[in-house]
Structure formats: C-alpha cells, structure tokens
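Let us work through a complete example step by step.
Step 1: write down the sequence.
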Amino acid sequence: MARSLQSDPTSFMPVGALYAILAYGSWGLLPIYWKFFAQVPAVEVLSHRMIWSAVLLIAVLWLQNRRAEFWRVWQPQYLRALLLTAGLLAFNWGLYIYGVNTDRVVETSLGYFINPLVNVLLGFVVLKERLYRGQQIAVLLAGLGVAYFVWQFGAVPWIALGLAFSFAFYGLLRKVVAVAPMAGLAVETLLITPVALAIVGYGASTGTGHWNTSWTLNWLFIGCGIVTSFPLLWFNNAAKRLRLSTLGFFQYLAPSLQLILGVFLYHEPFTQTHAITFGLIWTALAVYSLTAWHIQRVS
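Step 2: predict the structure and record it as tokens.
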C-alpha cells in the first residue's frame, strides 16, 4: 500500500488536505490556549513558548535522525540572518499573545488576513517581483480597508499591522536564507532561549513569575512547545503533499477561526466599521487568490 501511494502523487491529496486542516485549524484555535494565561504577562508566556519549542523541535529533529540538518545551520552566514529572523518571530509571537489576552482577537485575525497581501507588496518592493494588475487591485483594496478603519475609529490597528508586517518580513528573510524550515526554527528558538531563561529565572528569583505556582500552569507552560511544534509538523507534511497554490487557500482558515472565536466565543465588538474593513480585505483576498490561480494556470 505504501508503495502504491508513493507511485501515485494524487493519492497524497486527501492526506495533504487533512494535514493542512490540522495545521491551520490549530493555528486558528490558538487563542483558546493563550486565554489560559490571561493573568500572566505576555513576555513570560512568550519566554516559555520559546524555551519549550526549542526543546521539542530539537527532540523531533533528533528522533527523525535529522541531526546533520540541524548542525548545518550553525554557520556564521546563516546565524547572522537567523538572529534577525528570531527577533522578528519573537516579536510576532509576543504581540499575538498580547493581542489575544487584551481581548483583541478580532484585530489579530485582521492581521493574518492582511499578511498575504503584505507579502505581495514586499515581494514587489524588495525582491522587484512583478506586480500583476489583480495583485495591484488587491493591495489597494487592503489599503483602503485599513484607511477606513483608521478614519472611523481614529486609531491605527497597530496589532493587526504589527502582526502582518513582522510575519511578512520574517517570511521574506527566511525565503532568502537557504536553511530547512524545521531546523531553522529550532535554531531561532534556541537563539532566543538564553534571554527567555533569564526572564523566567528573574521571575522565579523575585517571586514575580508564575512558574511553579501551580502544576496546572506548569503543564500549560510546557504545552506551549506542543501547540507550537505539532502544527508546524503538520504544515510541513501538508507542504510536501499539496501544490503551493492549493496550500495557499487553506491559510485563510486560521484567521477565519480566530475571527469566529473573537466575535462569538469572546463577544468582542464587531461593528459596521469592522464589517466594511473586513469586507474590503476579503474582497482583496478573493482578487489576489483568483489572480494567483490564473497566473499558475497560464504559466
């Protein structure tokens, strides 16, 4: 059976779709997990996420006999870039946890809806990639959506924009650094781990931290590594089995679930302004997706 699956790539499609749903579905439901840390500062939660993610990712690489892949990353030309991407990743993760635990799940979902369009914009500005007419319209619509939000509320959705741009810059830099995704992430979390350990250690020594205050909280801290690593493993499996364009459609599952949680589970406000802003963003994403599909079809 395994031999027949390997010989027929199309047989991987259902399995690949399942992995994609598991990955993006998990990311979409993450606010539920972070809400368990409502009384814990975002920096402390982030520190534990970095520490336990590093432990789990390295363990997975060892168990999969990918040690050579891990050690290959420890070269000066890679480490300089990964130190920068690690900083962007820490900022993104920390901002997301902060957004969730300050009751702004709807705004975090807006950030991840905008992210693909920011990727297109950075590709045009930094990598000099061609910006097709449909992509130009999509970026313009997204810009109008954000501008309308600012005009109506008199405030910049800085959490949404911070998440969108930090992750877009992270993706851009990782694109030009030739390291394997899993090994690269393991090294990134490991590079931040000394700072994370210092923060956790300071909290323990001064009594301001939350480690060892209860067994439940300890297990939740350790679980930060699990909720980070498993979706990444599922994503990697999905990426191996699905075309990039197919995988791209699944990415909207995560912010959609976040939006549903924010509105219906956590009862965050969703006003007419939100509806118009999201409507413009969703229209932009539809135009962007149709353009990407057309480009791949004719190429």
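Step 3: interpret the result. The first helix runs from residue 2 to 7.
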